[in-house]
Amino acid sequence: MGTVFSFDIACDGGPRVRSAIEAAVASLHTADAVFSTYRPDSQLSRLARGEVDLARCDADVAEVLRLCERARERTDGWFSAGYAGGLDPTGLVKGWAVERAARMISEAGARGVCVNGGGDIQLLGEPEPGQPWRVGIAHPLRPGELATVVEGADELAVATSGTAERGCHVLDPRSGRPPVDAAASVTVLARSLADADAWATAAFAMGTRARHWLDAQAGVEGFAVTADGGTWRTTRFDRVSAVRCS
Amino acid sequence: MLTRNPLRRTVLGAAATVSGIVLLLALKPHSAPAPALAHATAPTSPPTSSAGAPSTGAPSKGGTAPAKRTGTVTGSTVQTDYGPVQVQATFANGRITGVTALQTPSDNPRDQEIASYAVPQLTREAIAAQSAHIDAVSGASYTSAGYIQSLQSALDRAGG
């Protein structure tokens, strides 16, 4: 699974920010080495096979599993890292790693930070004084087109879940199958990308129920393109939308 | 904002891991030109498989005004888990007007199928991103690291 991480940093080039960027890149490599389900020697793979116990793993493993458990509770079980006895936090770990990387750079003094990990984005600060970040939501059914544009500053995370290039990768934890009435893509906005990533995964698995569920969540907005090309959005979504029509 | 070009970024370091994570580390000048962050390659060296070595990791030219290039620029060939990717970008007055894939993974029908729609999608996204003043695009993840790296190297050679 190849994923591109891009960093867009607004700063005056201070040495603290430079070293924070290097540390942030290193943290993504480390997260991949620790959490990859594709690597048989990752701590997560070894933990899943029972070869190592949690106490002997990196502290990040306990942190991510704690976030997974919280996401499971807050999504009424629609987000699950434990399907079929396995251990797979991939619905959350990329967002968590990207958010951590972004915050490392922001805390070093960067005015604006945008880290995009394969389409899941954590924004902090602002790109230029008084300007919001602008994020296009790729249209899942019309390649190259944007379904909408959102904007925000300070703290905004954007995560999209959908049928990816290499097929559906989200299963309904209740049936173990791809969601029956799945949207083409569901985008979730929150302040934290670890949350938004998990919420987007859960909302995609929920199918049509996602809209009402997302509406009921505090500090979360949602937007979806349905399989027939229609769209829906949560009632307060327009507060972050940069598109003022429909 | 009018002069911002989200794709005119300088790749500072790229590395791939066994599972194919490719890091694109980019800086662009916003309001104030940022000093170059040269040689900021990823601190952890990539394991043996897959490539994405920082062939595009040329030292930044941050702070210099991009040339208003017209013509075509060929990007580096980037090795991905699925095969080599190389693109050529066409510029008119310093803006991308088209991207042509010179090489895409084609070892099997599935790779060919993915390339057949992923490459046009990425090309439109690249062009849309610079015209819509979008800082980033959110969408279901794609395995197109090679395309972006090769495009980035073309942008670097174009003077971005």
From TrEMBL, chain A:
Q: Name one GO molecular function term.
A: transferase activity
The EC number(s) this enzyme carries: 2.7.1.180
* Enzyme superclass (EC): transferase
Give UniProt keywords alphabetically: FAD, Flavoprotein, Magnesium, Metal-binding, Transferase
The record's catalysed reaction(s) read: L-threonyl-[protein] + FAD = FMN-L-threonyl-[protein] + AMP + H(+)
The cofactor required is: Mg(2+)
The protein's name in its UniProt record: FAD:protein FMN transferase
From TrEMBL, chain B:
Query: Which residue positions does the secretion signal occupy?
Result: none
* Biased composition annotated in UniProt, kind: Low complexity: 36-63
PROSITE patterns per the UniProt record, alphabetical: TAT
Q: Which residues form a coiled coil?
A: none
Q: Which residues form the FMN-binding domain?
A: 81-158
Renumbered residue ranges of the record's region Disordered: 36-79
Q: Which InterPro entries match?
A: FMN-bd, TAT_signal
What name goes with this protein?
FMN-binding protein
